[in-house]
């Protein structure tokens, strides 16, 4: 059974991580990293990428706060269930694009042309982008001693045109005394193809408060409180290659760019009040809750950026050169908090369960799962 569950989770994470818009768009987002040659340019690149990956910060945290329970009722003493599920958060229209002119950039600049637009997709937005940005570099002309300023343009990446943020999960719950369940989430460190790595753990509590209410034994439904915390660490390899061309000077060995990756660290916490009814073959529940999450994305490794070659400032071809920057991106999404409403059901066939739920929040989440339970 352990090997089977491990295989299911490994395959689930492989499918979702391999098809994830984040994985698909990281290479394209590398064009923004190439604008981080200066300290101010690096800050602007972080601002652009924070806006571009905004749905990850909200959607992924919402996914991790889902699926903690499939009934309002708690287990009997030492009763337990094991569930494998997948959650998908829908990105609202307001977070599928953003306006670069509203980001208060200091060094990078929107290049306005007849065919361009300052409104550009996020990673989960439309599959086309026509936003051009310019990165400006100042240097001293070695021949004249005068200060010069050059611009290197780059295109903002498109989205995937898939406005959904997915996340799989495996967890087990065990009943203890006084109507209390302890739930544990755990995925051991996995090394998946395409240099995808991840590990996850979480812990939750659910307590049936029906017996503490006046006349609780006569209440025909179960009323419970639940809280859960999840922590996810993952990394995804991607490639930002140096610009090629006869006018580009590159003095770095190709191995310099090995080890490029995006590292993600997510923390999610939720608390919920539930009411529901459990019948022999089906359970129904609903509730309200509060959730919060945070996400950090950084980019360990060395990355090539293109800058003007100040050794040849007077050539009309404006020669360029490659400069190396280390760990250019460090983005934090903090306190993505919201209230939510939720409904769900569990269909029980002997020891086999099929579960489904829907969470109504800024990022609505649908969740389905299968598992086994012994109450």
Please tag this protein with its features.
single chain, 375 residues, mainly beta, three-stranded antiparallel sheet, 19 strands, signal, Outer membrane protein beta-barrel domain-containing protein
| Approximate helicity band | 10-25%
Structural class, from helix and strand content?
mainly beta
Low-confidence stretches: 1-19
Give the overall form.
Answer: elongated
Q: Provide the gyration radius in Å.
A: 25 Å
N-to-C SSE series? HHHHEEEEEEEEEEEEEEEEEEE
User: How large a portion of the residues is in β-strands, by DSSP E?
Assistant: over 45%
Please report the total strand number as a whole number.
19
Average of pLDDT: 84
Taken together, the total number of domains comes to 1
Gap between N and C termini: 19 Å
Largest β sheet strand count, sense and barrel closure? 10 strands, antiparallel, barrel
SSE inventory with pairings:
Blueprint: H1 2-19, H2 21-33, H3 39-52, H4 54-64, E1 80-90, E2 97-99, E3 109-110, E4 119-121, E5 132-140, E6 147-155, E7 164-176, E8 180-192, E9 196-208, E10 222-237, E11 248-249, E12 261-278, E13 282-298, E14 302-308, E15 320-326, E16 330-333, E17 338-349, E18 352-360, E19 365-374
Parallel strand pairs: 11-15
Antiparallel strand pairs: 1-7, 1-19, 2-4, 3-5, 5-6, 7-8, 8-9, 9-10, 10-12, 12-13, 13-16, 13-17, 14-15, 17-18, 18-19
Structural write-up:
With 375 residues, the chain is mainly beta. The protein has one domain. Helix content is 15%, strand content 47%. The chain has helices spanning 2-19, 21-33, 39-52, 54-64, and strands spanning 80-90, 97-99, 109-110, 119-121, 132-140, 147-155, 164-176, 180-192, 196-208, 222-237, 248-249, 261-278, 282-298, 302-308, 320-326, 330-333, 338-349, 352-360, 365-374. A 10-stranded antiparallel β-barrel has the order 1-7-8-9-10-12-13-17-18-19. The chain is elongated and about 90 Å long.
């Amino acid at each position: 059974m352990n090997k089977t569950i491990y295989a299911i989770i490994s395959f689930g994470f492989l499918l979702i991580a391999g098809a994830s818009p984040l994985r698909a768009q990281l290479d394209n987002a590398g064009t923004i990293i190439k604008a981080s040659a200066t300290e101010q340019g690096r800050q602007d690149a972080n601002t652009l990428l924070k806006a571009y990956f905004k749905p990850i910060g909200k959607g992924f945290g919402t996914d991790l706060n889902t699926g903690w329970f499939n009934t309002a009722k708690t287990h009997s003493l030492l009763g337990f269930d094991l569930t494998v599920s997948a959650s998908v958060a829908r990105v609202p229209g307001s977070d599928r694009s953003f306006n670069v002119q509203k980001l208060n950039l200091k060094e990078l600049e929107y290049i306005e042309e007849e065919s361009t637009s300052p409104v550009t997709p996020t990673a989960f937005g439309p599959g086309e982008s026509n936003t051009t940005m310019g990165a400006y570099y100042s240097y001293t002309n070695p021949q004249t001693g005068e200060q010069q300023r050059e611009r290197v343009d780059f295109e903002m990446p498109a989205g995937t045109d898939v406005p959904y943020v997915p996340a799989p999960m495996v967890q087990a719950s065990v009943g203890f005394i006084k109507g209390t369940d302890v739930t544990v989430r755990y995925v051991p460190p996995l090394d998946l193809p395409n240099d995808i790595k991840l590990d996850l753990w979480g812990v939750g509590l659910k307590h049936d408060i029906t017996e503490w209410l006046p006349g609780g034994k006569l209440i025909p439904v179960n009323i419970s409180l639940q809280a859960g915390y999840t922590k996810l660490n993952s990394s995804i390899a991607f490639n930002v290659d140096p610009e090629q061309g006869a006018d580009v000077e590159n003095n770095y060995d190709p191995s310099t760019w090995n080890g490029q990756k995006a590292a993600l660290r997510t923390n999610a916490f939720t608390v919920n009040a539930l009411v529901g009814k459990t019948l022999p073959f089906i359970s129904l529940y609903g509730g309200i809750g509060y959730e919060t999450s945070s996400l950090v994305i950084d980019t360990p490794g060395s990355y090539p950026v293109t800058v003007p070659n100040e050794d040849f400032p007077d050539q009309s071809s404006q020669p360029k050169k490659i400069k190396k920057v280390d760990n250019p991106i460090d983005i934090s999404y903090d306190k993505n908090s919201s209230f939510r409403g939720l409904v769900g059901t569990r269909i029980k066939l002997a020891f086999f369960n099929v579960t489904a739920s829907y969470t109504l929040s800024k990022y609505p989440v649908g969740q389905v799962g299968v598992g086994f339970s012994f109450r």
